[in-house]
From TrEMBL:
CDD domains registered for this protein in UniProt: MDR6
Domain of life: Bacteria
Domain (Enoyl reductase (ER)): residue spans on this chain: 8-328
Classification via InterPro entries: ADH-like_N, ER, Quin_OxRdtase/zeta-crystal_CS, YIM1/Zinc_Alcohol_DH_Fams
Keywords on record: Oxidoreductase
Organism: Pseudomonas canavaninivorans
Entry protein name: Zinc-dependent alcohol dehydrogenase family protein
Short name of any one Pfam family annotated for the protein: ADH_N
Lineage, broadest ranks: Bacteria, Pseudomonadati, Pseudomonadota, Gammaproteobacteria, Pseudomonadales
Length: 333
């Protein structure tokens, strides 16, 4: 195997990524060397490239790309759960100083990946990890969503939102989701009751769908004013608000007067701290099980990008022009 590889490198902030040769990594103890077939592009990747996204702790120059799907080609010392030739997927690099997935090969902690669902293509699998882990950590790890609950997902057609809807449905909840008028049909297809947030204010849809009692779980995937609205939409005493974008300044008074609970979701923490990495692998196995059971799908943008098109892919994400998750392909299916 050649000791170099092609990779897309963000040399400096706010500059195009450069595709060039860099050294091919060698897997260390507990790591896998994966030949990357596809890399999912997240808004965070574009923010890092623009010099923002400081919470990701990814100094430039760097190879970006958080999500990946590919094939194991080499095992590091001590790895027993995977074999050469295994197809895997995961959220395993691109932050915290680690090399990302926009390269022909990546060395990753074996705990962070899982066997790729057979029912998904490499493109589809690469689109799934970050959004699924974020949705699962909120709904399952924090809120223990279960049958009989009414769950409201803000941004139900978005990356995290569409997965959150499907997880809540699979676990037996009655699911509602907000979106713009153009997204309501997609939300309905996912199995949720759509709510046009521009046509109905919070009090109106809480009265309509919960008789004014509030939702058992409200998951905010939008942030800002949407999180404030979530505090007014949750059930008294037993309600639980979640947010993966609760980074601003918010008044807790509406939540406190309801005696309700709030949990933040910070999906990057295991990659940044090393703590909880095995749980990410477990969550991805749950994703695979839902896919194989026909209870989970991921919408991928139909535009095909290769590594040489990486800047066009980043522009599509940064400008919000995608119809589903943007994926860069680095190898044959």
């Amino acid at each position: 195997m050649n000791n170099t590889m092609f990779a897309a490198v963000a040399e400096t902030a706010q500059a195009p990524l450069i595709v060039r040769h860099i050294a091919r990594p060698t897997p260390g103890k507990g790591q896998l060397l994966i030949q990357v077939h596809a890399a999912g592009i997240n808004p965070l990747d574009t923010k890092i490239a623009a010099g923002a996204g400081g919470h990701a702790r990814q100094p430039l120059p760097a190879v970006l790309g958080i999500d990946l799907a590919g094939v194991v080609v080499e095992l590091g010392e001590g790895v027993v759960d995977f074999a050469i030739g295994d197809e895997v997927f995961g959220m395993a690099g691109g932050i915290g100083g680690a090399q990302g997935a926009l390269a022909e090969y990546i060395a990753v902690d074996a705990q962070l990946v899982a066997p790729k669902p057979r029912a998904l293509s490499m493109r589809e699998a690469a689109a799934l990890p970050l959004v699924f882990i974020t949705a699962w950590e909120g709904l399952v790890d924090r809120a223990n969503v279960h049958p009989g609950q009414q769950v409201l997902i803000h941004g139900g057609a978005g990356g995290v939102g569409q997965i959150a809807v499907q997880i809540a449905k699979a676990r037996g909840a009655d699911v509602y989701a907000t979106g713009s008028a153009s997204s309501l049909d997609f939300i309905r297809e996912l199995g949720a009751t759509p709510i046009d947030y521009r046509a109905q204010d919070t009090d109106s849809y809480v009265r309509l769908h919960t008789d004014g009692e509030g939702f058992d779980i409200v998951y905010d995937t939008v942030g800002g004013a949407t999180l404030d609205a979530s505090f007014n939409a949750v059930k008294t005493y037993t309600g639980h608000v979640l947010s993966c974008l609760g980074w601003g300044q918010h008044s807790l008074a509406p939540l406190s007067f309801r005696g309700a609970s709030y949990s933040g979701v910070f999906t990057l923490m295991p990659l940044l701290t090393g703590k909880g990495r095995a749980h990410h692998g477990h969550i991805l196995r749950e994703a695979a099980a839902l896919v194989e059971a026909g209870q989970l799908r991921i919408k991928v943008d139909q535009t095909r990008f290769g590594l040489e098109d990486v800047n066009e892919a980043f522009a599509q994400v940064a400008e919000g022009r995608r119809q589903g998750k943007t994926v860069v392909e680095l190898g044959a299916e």
